[in-house]
Amino acid sequence: MVFSLRFEAHSEVGRIRKNNQDSGYASPTMLLVADGMGGAAAGDLASAVATTIARDADAHVAGAEMLDHMQGILATANSRLAELVSQDLTLDGMGTTFCGAMFDGEQLALTHIGDSRCYLLRDGALSQLTHDHSWVQQLMDEGRLTPEQAATHPHRSLILRVLNGQNNTSPDLELVEVQLGDRLLFCSDGLSGLISDDQIREFLTEDDLDLAIDDLTQAANEAGGHDNITVVLADVVEQDDALDAARPQLVGSATEREIPDVEEEPASPPPPPQELTPEHTGDEVARYAPEPTSRRWPGVIAGTLAILLVLGGATWGVVAYSTSRYYISEADGNVAIYNGLPGSLLGYELNVLAERSDIAVSDLPRFYQRAVSNTIATSDLVSAQESVEELRWKADRCVAVRQERLNQPGVSTPTPTASPSGLSTGQPNYPTYLAPITPTASTESDPEAC
């Protein structure tokens, strides 16, 4: 049986934030929410990029092909973010979650990365269809945190996977069968992070979509409203041609943020020949003709000085920016904290060793060995120190696990292999994130594997 969607979308700043970094989109064939992050580094731009690319690629696709289509959308969005960062280094650090689905009348092609969520209300029972890619969710999966503790954990905004222009972006992809009467909710953590699932279920039972959205956003604001709130709500109803032709809705920063064009750098054409008009005679011709070489030196010197000033200003800007950043990497085989940015500029190292720990990188789970090898960016020294302590716990556990293996006859410990991946965090006053790291072998499907 084929169904249609009746949908509504809403996005607002909330009570604390100065701008909206969320975006949302709803159409007869696509529903999604994107929660941008990066503060001054343009989280609103990141979510707008992902959402508008998805909107432009919205189409009637069926079955498993929807998953390929959605994966292509995320890959395109991630590439566009990388291009924008390479064009403007001040955008480095921006990223966005993406929680959305295509709809073919029978199934949803659910696509998810980050901590925005999709809920399903079916026969009065609420279920969360997505699994947060967050630090606290991982701790909950390990049994180290309860849901109540996770709600107030200082790193509850730390995200393990996100679209940010880096490689190895790996979304969760799943086909979900729908039923008549299902209600779908896509939301940013400005909603799910402030009100409980029981409250969400209660408000979703409202018959009217607009009323349900009003109740949800009001409850989130009354709970503090400290983040942007974006809600996309849809009911699965009997097939209706009018609903199938309904006008799509775009909300949030995607309606406000202008997306810069990605500038290409074509080869510079030769300058056109100077056209001489009738007035260009006598002394005028001399003014437009090339001057003797000896007369050109002042201009050459001035041009050279201008180039040096630009390079000097750019270098100073990068150096000043780098001194405000911290990241975790390897130093002589141990986990260490660096102040600055990885790499160098014009022969000048952009980082210094701030602290060296006694944690051997080889003691970490393979997942985190790769993360440290590729550097883990943090917003400040305190955040870096806290992350190092988390790594210490994981290393100590793995040392014990590997020692136990050595004591078992016939069991050998595999040698870790390095492969590039990345982690990054944003500023402390807005959601932070760790970039995507996905195990490359089935034996490493558990990031805690030792």
TrEMBL record:
SUPFAM superfamilies xrefs: PP2C-like
* Polar residues bias: start-end ranges: 409-430
From the UniProt entry, list the residue stretches annotated as the region Disordered: 246-281, 405-450
Pfam families assigned to the protein according to its UniProt record, in alphabetical order: PP2C_2
Q: Membrane-crossing residues?
A: 297-319
Q: Which residues form the PPM-type phosphatase domain?
A: 6-236
Q: What is this protein called?
A: Serine/threonine-protein phosphatase
What organism, scientifically named, is this protein from?
A: Tessaracoccus antarcticus
Taxonomy of the source species: Bacteria, Bacillati, Actinomycetota, Actinomycetes, Propionibacteriales
